[in-house]
Amino acid sequence: MTPSSRTRLPRAASPSAAPDRSPESGGSPHVPGSPGPDSPGPALVGRNLVRRVLDRSASSRLMLGWAGVAALMLLSPAPGALPSALLALALAAIVAVIVIAAGGVFAQAEALAHRLGDPYGTLVLTLSIVVIEVVLIAAVMLGPGDHATIARDSVMAVSMIIMNLVLGLCLLVGGIRREAIRVNRTGTSVYLVLLIGLGAMAFAVPTVLGEDGAYAPVQGVAIAAMAVAVYAVFLWRQTGAQAVEFQEVELPAADESAEEPADAADASDTEDSSPGIGATLSRHRAELGLRVLLLVATVLPIVLLSHDMAGLLDEGLDRLGAPIALSGVLIAAIVFTPETLTALRAAAGGEMQRVVNLCHGALVSTLALTIPTVLIIGLATGSPVVLAESPVNLLLLGVTFAVSAVSAAAPRVTAVHGTVHLLLFAVYALALLS
User: Fold this and answer.
1) Which domains does the chain have, with CATH numbers?
2) Is the peptide bond before 144 cis (omega within 30 degrees of 0)?
């Protein structure tokens, strides 16, 4: 899209847009069209700060996570010695605790996003996902049994869940509630270009360049370095000169079918009306610091529980004779359940660009950070990391990116676009179980 055809960003949310609600109330944290940090009201201090940040929900999730860690330390269950019923119960309990703790992590990340505004807020959410995902993948990869493909299976499951299941549901919900919705086509095209390139490096190139589906050590280091470098350039542009391209766009109120040229002065006025990121960090330094500490304290139980989960999961799949790829699906489901709910709320409120930032941004982070991190872990521990995908999954991934590109290029996206994404996810599930 040329600069002359860029859609104008509104000065304020339209009457049809969902009202701004704090993360504590369960609402979407960002109003459509608000490009800068959100810093309403005075900065929280003292007891008000503690009560606001360490509320009942955050305290409960934190205590549950550490209680789970303490219980496992006392019981020390041996997966091979447990009857099948107890094995399933123990695994379900650990997964439930991890999911609840992950919800606490995302609640704090979303609260940080509420303060920082897009694209910084969405970046916090996606990086939180990467941390949890790497922890879970590494726990399974370094655990008992042969899990050379766990990174591939997990990231492919993440790709299909995000780009087809979650995005499809969001388009379906948003399309039904809003009739027609729009995304910022320039920003969305940036995401898709990154996904196609990084996805090819992760899943397609190892089939021809690597050995037995895995990169050689030198190749793995080079691929990891290039992926991180590309992601660094993306972040530099996304949080700088191109930040406006990742913010909400709306149909003009006078004629919803028309597209107005961008007005540089209007965009500048819109950006200037919001406090800068530096002012937000200075004003809310105490709140942001406390939320980061709480986020870390909630992540640690996930790290400690993941090792026991990996052993129980491996034993359970062996007893069932189930495909090992289901481990990757479970990891993807654990990681993205909280963000799926956030994306659905944003879609229901008409914040479609926020949905794109959450879904596409999370997958870009996964491909650009999770894959390189796993490659380095494999190299450091001598564990093989097989990334080459099967032909059917490569085909589905390619079709998914093609459908996403066609949808993003349209002036509007509708519920019909969502049904096609859901169809592709159903085919992936069928191929997984076949």
Assistant:
1) 44-251+261-433 (1.20.1420.30)
2) no
